[in-house]
Structure formats: C-alpha cells, structure tokens
Amino acid sequence: MTPFARNFLLSPAGIRSTATGACQSLRGCSTNVARSFMSATRPSQHTFASSSSSSEKEEEEARAGAGSSEASEQKPLRLSREQRAMLAEMIRVDQAGELGANWIYRGQYAVLGSDKKVGPLLQHMWDQEKVHLKTFDDIIGEHRVRPTALRPFWEVAGFALGAGTALMGKEAAMACTEAVETVIGGHYNDQLRELLKIDHPDIDKLRTIVQQFRDDELEHLETALDHDAQKAPNHELLSNFIKQGCKLAIYISSKV
Ligand SMILES: [Fe+2]
Ligand SMILES: [Fe+2]
Fold it and tell me: Which of 155, 180, 224, 237 has the fewest CB atoms within 10 Å, counting from its CB?
C-alpha cells in the first residue's frame, strides 16, 4: 500500500472512519498475508456451497484418523454454515462490484479515452479492474457461488455513471473514481476484518486477493485525488450521491 493510502486509512480525520480499525489490525498481519499470497497457487478443494455427504464422511474420517496433538495443530477442515453463507455473499458482491467498476471505466474511456492526460490513466485503472473481475469470475466458479442476477443492470448502470460523469468533465470523472474507490476500499477493508477471524485454508487465498485489490482500489483513489477530483463542480453533492449509490449497490448485489 502506498504511504498515502496508509495515511488515508489510518487518519482519524480520514474520509472513511470505518476503515481505520480494520487497517490497524491489518498492518500487523500484512507480511504473513503477502507471504501466503505468493504461495497460494493450489486450487481450492473445499467449496462454500453445501458439501456432499460423501465428502463430509471423508472429512470425518480424516478427523478421526488424525492424532489428537496433530489435529490440534491443523486448521479446521470445514467451514460452518454461517461462514459459508457469509463468504458466498462476499464473493457475489465482489464479483458484481468489479463488474460495475469495469463498466464505469468503460463509460469514462468512451468519452475521455482520447484525452492525452486522462486517457492513459483511465486505461491503466480499467486494465486493473479487468484483472479484478477475471479473478472473481474464477473464484465464483471455483466456490460454486451464485452470481448476481442483476448483471445486465449493473453493466448499464456502471456505463451510464462512467460516461455521465465523464461528459461533465475530467474533474467529475475523477470525482466519480474518488467516490467509488472510497466506498469500495472501505468495503474490502470490512471484508478483510471478517476474513481475519476465519482460520481455514480456503480463506488464506481469498484474504490475500481481497487485500491486494483493496490496495489497488486505494491507488485508484489516490490517482483521482491527484488529478483534481475535488475540483469537480458540485463535488460534495456529486460525491455523496455516488457513494450512496455504491452502498446501495453493495447491499442489493449481496442479496440478489
Ligand atoms: Fe476493482
Ligand atoms: Fe478500482
């Protein structure tokens, strides 16, 4: 994470006070998380969907076969029903969010892509969002999580938001990025706080991905601030409108 993003998250006067505690707790574990990210290459063998009875049997046999001292050092083999439900919501909303982000940048690029100053910035951020979406497309299949049923709506809404703000000017486009990434960065931080409570092999990989993407989103936020986001006309009004829309989208896509 960049020094700016770290200061932003830790500042008591930061835009997102809810992220402060999460970031403080994350600082202590970031090294371990980064290490696990480098080694997290194996595909998941456990899903967040309900396990079959045969796999449950195998897991019980595995537990019974393990010595007591050895078993006490192992991570739990199964996630609880509540944990699976929570993770399914997280993955669904993250995939929907990355989908929306892609279409926001697509809309902005359609209007401002030829601008020599802003065009390359939008392309760079959009490229990162493409990686984010591809990753969650893979995760949602890997863990057999139901994707959002509102995909067409998020695509249209994202494009309209991106193109609409870009038509208002470069500063408004950056204000859109500032608002969206503020909410998404905080959203990922909230998820990290929950994921840190779960000790399971499947979670190590997901936690590391969420942390990496959180850092990317905060870099996008920093880019927007560096490129006059707060000079947009009616910045406060525009920013609050977009933030509330993002929060509503997060809630809806976690359920639908
Ligand atoms: Fe993203
Ligand atoms: Fe982003």
Answer: 237
Number of domains in the chain: 1
Q: For residue 39, what are its two tokens?
A: 């080694």
Give me the CATH number covering residue 108: 1.20.1260
Q: Is residue 59 part of a domain?
A: no
39 lies in some domain: no
- Which listed ligand is nearest to 221 at the C-alpha? 2
State which residues form the domain around 136: 81-256
Instruction: Examine residue 102 and state whether it is found in any structural domain, yes or no.
Output: yes
235 is in an annotated binding site: no
> What is the pTM assigned to this prediction?
0.69
What is the residue-level pLDDT of the chain in tens, covering all 256 positions? 455 444 444 443 343 333 333 333 333 333 333 333 333 333 333 444 434 444 455 445 444 444 444 444 555 567 778 888 888 899 999 999 999 999 999 999 999 999 999 999 999 999 999 999 999 999 998 888 889 888 888 999 999 999 999 999 999 999 999 999 999 999 999 999 999 888 877 788 889 999 999 999 999 999 999 999 999 999 999 999 999 999 999 889 888 8
Distance of CA 222 to the CA centre of its chain: 17
Q: Ligand 2 mean position to 217 CA, how many Å?
A: 4
**Proximal ligand: closest to the CA of 179:** 2
181 is in an annotated binding site: yes
Q: What is the DSSP letter of 116?
A: T
**CB-CB contact of 169 with 111 (8 Å):** no
Two structure tokens written together for 114: 């030829």
